[in-house]
Amino acid sequence: MNRQQALFEYLLRLGDNALILGQRLTEWIGHAPALEEEMGSANIALDLIGQARGWLAYAGTVEGAGRDEDDLAFQRDVMNFRNVLLVEQPNGHYGDTIARQYLFDAFHYPLLTALSACTDQSIAGIAAKASKEAAYHRRRSAEWVIRLGDGTAESHAKLQQSFDTLWPYTGELFALDEVDHTLRRTGVAADLTAVRREWHEHVTRTLAGATLVPPQEGWMQSGGKQGRHSEQLGYVLAEMQFLPRAYRDARW
Amino acid sequence: MQDWPLWEVFIRSRRGLAHKHVGSLHACDAPMALANARDIYTRRSEGVSIWVVRSTDIIASAPGDKPILFDPSEDKVYRHPTFYEIPDEVDNL
Questions:
Q1: Which listed site, A9, A123, A182, B26, has its alpha carbon 20 to 30 Å from B38?
Q2: Cross-chain CB nearest to B39 (options A33, A43, A143)
Q3: How far apart are CA A193 and CA A54, in angstroms?
Q4: Could you report the predicted ipTM of this complex, rounded to two decimals?
């Protein structure tokens, strides 16, 4: 794998994480438990989709095959997506969505902070802008974890179950492969070991504040970053990609 | 979530201006009220500072008191500073 291929893969990972989680959050529009939450989720979804746009546009430039961010978002099939499995997991109940969001936000913020110092100026620029948004996302989802975990007996039990279910998807966030190794040598890829330290520290503190028990470390799911996805992603893409695929010239 | 209290939201649009009432929202507690206010009322860069106040903590004048409270000031024209000659050199007073 040469540097250009690794960079393209790396940008797809960043872009697809933001795109798929953003798309998932938009599914709450019209269904959220409170109007205020609906607006909050929609804002975060828009932040993420905006970030995805930046990453995928740059990915298209790096690839040099004439694909723009729309082509990459709407004309790729499941196996060509590079998002982690965590973000494609279904919304479930609101506690499931909050747990998924928090586990991702706690990873996303330190990742973007690290990438703000990237030797690649385009990556550093997108990451610096996105990290402010991610800081707010993490604060908001952590506050919700504390309120639901330390809320009623029912909300506590449900949220504990959400974390237990999603925990096996957290290992993949920090798993290194050839893409990371190739880019680490030139100071482009973030140091995921340092990101993991901050993630772990933040998650431990938030779960304690929420009176939740950290799930047992065990077998971890993997594959999303290499394009091996759960069946969930196909449904997400079917909804997201239908219109631009059925109506190729659609404009708005 | 139906028993979330109501909060009144005040936004200061920029430095030097006063906070202005912009609306209300529901939230379970004060930090979430601030977060919701940020998400609902500052999406288009409307503000640099937010206040939230529990609606029940606002003491309002009764609409029925309007004649007693406000009508008496209507014929007190001398309370308006309109009896000064303003020199031409003064642009703003």
A1: A123
A2: A43
A3: 25
A4: 0.79
- Given this model, what pLDDT does residue B1 score? 66
**Amino acid of residue A139:** R
* B64: its two tokens: 């029925």
- Which amino acid does the sequence have at A219? W
pLDDT value of position B87 = 85
Q: What is the pLDDT of residues B1-49, one digit of tens each?
A: 678 999 999 999 988 889 999 999 999 999 999 999 999 999 888 899 9
Residue A210 CA, chain-centre distance (Å), reads 23
Going along chain B from its start, the domains and CATH numbers come out as 6-79 (3.10.20.520)
- Is the CB of residue A78 less than 8 Å from the CB of residue A238? no
Taking 90 as the threshold, does the pLDDT of residue B80 lie above it?
no
Q: Let me know: does A39 contact B23? Beta carbons within 8 Å.
A: no
Q: Tell me: the pLDDT tens digits for A111-131?
A: 999 999 999 999 999 999 999
Nearest alpha-carbon partner for A83 in A225, A192, A229, A234: A225
Q: CA-CA distance, B86 to A233, in Å (whole number)? A: 72
Interface of A with B in 29-58 (CB under 8 A): 33-36, 39-40, 43
pLDDT surpasses 70 at A159: yes
Distance CA A209, CA A201 (A): 12
Q: Domains in chain A, ordered, with CATH?
A: 3-246 (1.20.1260.10)
Cβ contacts of B43 on chain A, cutoff 8 Å? 39, 43
Q: DSSP secondary-structure letter at A28? A: T
- Cα distances from A41 to residues A24, A31, A45, B50, in angstroms, run 10, 11, 6, 20
